Amino acid sequence: MADEKILIVEDEEDVLELIRFNLEKDDYLVETAMTGREALDKALAVSPDLILLDLMLPEIDGLEVCKTLKKDAKTDTIPVIMLTAKGTEADIVAGLEMGADDYITKPFSPRVLLARIKAVLRRKEAAAGAERNTLRIYDLEIDSGRHRVTLKGKPITLTSTEFSLLKFLAGRPGWVFTRYQIVDAVHGNDYPVTDRSVDVQIVGLRKKLGDAGKYIETVRGVGYRFMEPN
After folding, report:
1. In which band, very low, low, confident or very high, does the pLDDT at 190 lie, cut at 50, 70 and 90?
2. Domain that residue 75 falls in
């Protein structure tokens, strides 16, 4: 059963009710607005998972509403599908440039609309998953999905062990780990290792990180930690 909340922004009441009927039949939670100003207020108040936004609206038009939503940190990640009677290439480009995720022209099939909504929500979930797999700390970005590290936007080539070591320490800033805890986390239990081999890996990793190597701190007599951001 769907539990996503969708905000319909449409000033034609019959069209709004038709969309509402089909969405609720598909088990979506529905909120509605009939003006651009009401749309902005509702988006902030109810935090919808997706917005269906008509282009021609009273008070504030759909393009301006979309632009405002995408500039606000509280609403910029909400997907927007624009609904409009306009179908020219210029209108489509304008909507997408304002940050719309998809564009459907009237009249449209309810089945097509539902399919497009599901596709956009799937993309949103996939993007959220990718974001969860990416760690950003200081000037470093550690992308687990792509197994890639960048420093100030520039890629750094690491071995598999160095990558796992950096990910482990940076993922728990401020925590101190012994060398054997680090080995267990990176290689698994019972991996043959000496204190010296961990130290060698740390030295090599710091060298590749350049100035950012300072974030990996030695805790004398214990092990290592990643510097906690202030």
Report:
1. very low
2. 5-132
